[in-house]
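Ergosterol biosynthesis protein
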Amino acid sequence: MDAVEDISWWNALPISPGFLPKFLLFVSVVSVANSMQCYATLKFTKRVYSGKPFEVNGLSSRTFGTWTMLAALIRFYAAYNISNGPIYDICIGTFVLAGWHFVSEWLWFGTASLGEGLTGPLIAASTGLTWMLWQRGYYLTLPAQ
């Protein structure tokens, strides 16, 4: 095996079996990009909160970006430590909080509307939560990596 293959991006993926750790890594990377967008521009935050875009301001966007970065950090750590029970459960919590936030902003507060800005976060939160709850027993019985 040559040195180029040893340092390929493939070797950086989580080594635990299954696709859930890779999904968590993917969602984490996307969340980091979203966090940076929240600091750079209001455009994408206003797309998520298209029900009342006039309520989006620099402070709310940066706060959302910070919150999203924290969720990304937890999900990243869980991707590489999937068999650690407390980390796994905290990661589940990030999807519960994200789901609650987006659904409440949509259905209760009316700041978000179902469309291109909200669909992705709703899919990520519901997929992550369902998948993690469904696979919890499997991943927590794996030996620590």
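thats it. The two ends are 23 Å apart (CA to CA). The mean pLDDT is 92. bye
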